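My main concern about presentation is that the manuscript never shows what a single data entry looks like. For the editor and my fellow referees, an illustration may be useful. For illustration, here is how one protein appears when written out as sequence plus structure tokens:

***
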Amino acid sequence: MCSSDLKMRDPELIHNFKGHKDAITGLSFNPSQKQVASSSLDGSVMLWNWSTDKKAYRFSAHTDAVLDVNFSRSGHLMASGSRDRTIRLWVPNMKGESTVFNAHQAAVRSVEFSPENLRLVSASDDKSVKVWTVHRTKFTQSLTEHTNWVRCARWSPDGKLIASCSDDKTIKVWDEVSGTCVHTFNEPKGFGQHLDWHPSGSCLGVGTSDSKVKVFDVRSMKLQQQYSVHEAPVNQVSFHPSGSYLVSASQDETIRIYDLLAVKPVCTLYGHDKGVGAIHFSPQGEYIASGACDAKILVWKSNLDASKDKENCKPPIDSIHADSPVLNIHKTNHSDNTLAQTKDNLIRAKDVFSATKDDLKDVVRSVGSLDLDDSRVSQQLTEVSSKLETLTQTVLFVEKRLSLVEDQVKILSTNRLN
């Protein structure tokens, strides 16, 4: 069921795939055609078609549970990680040919191709994140600062950073070239179970073991949004390609969709009989695939692009990573608590707005201090121009957010008096 105030159509269930014999652990869409791959605790990877009459393909070379699956950006290869400690690269056809390499000293929790398809990143219960070349399946480096199982590792959209989350209650951002950790987000209670990069590369969406969905800004290195609507651990999250929405799958048997510009949950999907373990948006965002402990895979038509004008569907790239106040969205809110929280958010927003204006002044001063005789002046001007555009968009967004929060305060104040 979706919130009626957005006048959005409910996502439509279009396919119900059955074939696995145990819980679904991972899902990935083929970018080039209507196929979705699934991994399962039954030890197999399956490939499902819904545009033709082709039957599903089952790939069964792993000797233990398969914990993740991922299509290359070209759609010519699939990668899977297993509890048998190996990674397999598959050619997605009926022959089921695969290349295997011994990847880790413990279960491989996640695998993902890099944006240019030349590398692979994996996360493991051996507390490490590893990077591999795809062509020769050659190990290139290991990221080893985690102190407990690493649940998930994902490439940034530009392939320069890697983000990982672990049972050690940290979320780390790594520089892929140097292999150094550039920032660590610490979780106070639960730990990150899964993460996904915002399409702009500016934010991380994280699902946690204490039932939270969080959005972290990787530029300001701060928590930006937090949602507390699930009643059980959040197993996976996925951003819509437009960057306007985030979807989460939880052990509470529900799927939630969040509008990141309105900063609120807008839709809850029901369809699984047990905890939902996997969720994934298709590359264009027109479909959502979900998989659960009931061994079913559901494919939904998202209907999200039709819910907003094209101008609003794809927000400015900096609107999401603006240093806005953290907004906590809960299942229920008492008016007094909501009013107090909204006022606090208003104060934070004003502080952010002031700080952003100071940043703009610094940029202007940096233009005046440029050495015009320097051979790199063109590059400096380009960098300053980019920063100025980013900060200008941020100011505009914060002004809009400030106005919305002020309206919320007025409405809540009026309701309280009545």
